[in-house]
Amino acid sequence: MSVNDFVLTSPDIGNGERIDDRFAGQHGAETPRLSVAGVPAEAVELAVVCHDPDAPLPAGFTHWTLYGLPAQEGAIDVSAGRPGPNDDDGVGYVGPFPPVGHGVHHYYFWVYALKAPVAGTPTRRDFLHEYRADVVGQARLVGTYSR
User: InterPro entries recorded for this chain (predicted)?
Assistant: First the structure.
């Protein structure tokens, strides 16, 4: 599996830095731009997941699942993918919205390079379970947010 050469970056979120309010739930929740480099040659598709493990829920909170993205270098065109379920009973990106005073939450933006296409729009947990053997590369970017 490629973990060193496969890289996820964003012009909107610095790794380890605070996410700007415009991407947060209470401020319009713009979808952040993402870009990849070093896509493994055997990848046929990319998937994106954003998850907050600091959310006060047993399994954290999934903010975004996106499937069916072309396995190519450069900016990720989110309109080219299939938005999947989030933990806000919706579909697509939902911005950070931690409880007031709960401290700093970490938002893990993951991109997975897959050797097989994802069928449908599974939940994050189902995707990680059902496609674990198809992951040929993964990369992450972590932003923080608090209220």
Answer: PEBP, PEBP-like_sf, YbhB_YbcL/LppC-like
Amino acid identity for residue 31 in this structure:
T
Which is it for strands 82-83 and 61-69: parallel, antiparallel or unpaired? antiparallel
Stretches where the chain sits below pLDDT 70 are: 1-4
Residue keyed to tokens 């579909």: 91
Q: What is the pLDDT of residues 21-56, one digit of tens each?
A: 999 998 889 999 999 999 999 999 999 999 999 999
As a whole number of Å, the end-to-end CA separation of the chain is 37
Residue 1 lies in a domain: no
Look at residue 31 in the predicted model and tell me its pLDDT.
97
User: Do residues 40 and 143 lie in contact, with contact meaning Cβ atoms separated by under 8 Å?
Assistant: no
Q: Which of 116, 128, 140, 110 is nearest to 68 (CA)?
A: 116
Distance from C-alpha of 147 to C-alpha of 32, rounded to nearest angstrom: 19
Indicate which CATH number applies to the domain containing 106.
3.90.280.10
Alpha helices in 1-147 (DSSP H): 124-130
